[in-house]
């Protein structure tokens, strides 16, 4: 567990070491504001049992009023039913995925608490503050969202910025860090065009940290600007396929 931001009323906490065995590393986050909290991308079943214990050190489970799913993948949603059973929280997921995730065993009566996010995003009030749910479609999921928290100035970027294989959870040298992000972004992001659009959009936000759902956090405006420039110039996805659909990344 690591605290990314804290003031009297507002706290952002990261849990980055709960995946076990053959599971891909996945990070969960909790944003607390006053009497309410939101859990972001809670993960799978085995993560669930460890995460309830760890979260209890940060906030009482009864305060978990919101669950955010950035997209439909198992490392995001597989424990959705358990979280909805344990809490009275409302969940939020792209309107395009709500019926797909029922296959993870989400009970019908609980499914009414899953709120569909429209394609252009929305605001979610947690405690006294509004969090922005911003569209990040096709990065990598076709219907995909991120959370921007204007209080902590953290962008919770979901799979964008994901890194694998490094032995730190906070980037110090961006250029050295690229090799840990490269394979995923080249293979999972469908094309450079969408990255350029996204960078244009988020450059308008005041961001102090980018916190992806896998791997290390990008701290500081200098690293964040380097990340944007890297994305704008990244050749990825369809443009790396040859005519036999072999990937030449
Ligand atoms: Fe994913």
Set out the fold topology.
Blueprint: E1 2-6, E2 10-15, E3 28-33, E4 36-40, H1 45-56, E5 64-68, H2 74-77, H3 80-86, E6 90-94, H4 108-111, E7 114-117, E8 122-126, E9 129-135, E10 145-149, E11 154-158, H5 174-188, H6 192-202, E12 209-212, E13 218-219, H7 221-232
Parallel strand pairs: 4-5, 5-6, 6-7, 11-12
Antiparallel strand pairs: 1-2, 2-3, 3-4, 8-9, 9-10, 10-11, 12-13
Helix pairs in contact: 6-7
Strand neighbour order, sheet with most strands:
1-2-3-4-5-6-7
Estimated helix fraction: 25-40%
Write out the CATH superfamily name: Ribonuclease Z/Hydroxyacylglutathione hydrolase-like
Name of the top-level CATH class? Alpha Beta
- Arithmetic mean pLDDT: 96
Largest sheet: 7 strands, mixed
The CATH architecture: 4-Layer Sandwich
Structural overview:
With about 250 residues, the protein is of the alpha/beta class. The protein has one domain: Ribonuclease Z/Hydroxyacylglutathione hydrolase-like (Metallo-beta-lactamase, Chain A, 4-Layer Sandwich). It contains seven helices and 13 strands. It has helices at about 45-55, 75, 80-85, 110, 175-190, 190-200, 220-230, and strands spanning about 1-5, 10-15, 30-35, 35-40, 65-70, 90-95, 115, 120-125, 130-135, 145-150, 155-160, 210, 220. The strands form two sheets. It has a seven-stranded mixed beta sheet with strand order 1-2-3-4-5-6-7, covered by helices on one side. A six-stranded mixed beta sheet has the order 8-9-10-11-12-13, covered by helices on one side. Helix 6 (about 190-200) runs antiparallel to helix 7. The protein is globular and about 50 Å long. The two termini are about 35 Å apart. The mean pLDDT is about 95. The site of fe (iii) ion has 5 residues, from loops. Fe (iii) ion (FE) binds near residues 71, 141 and 159.
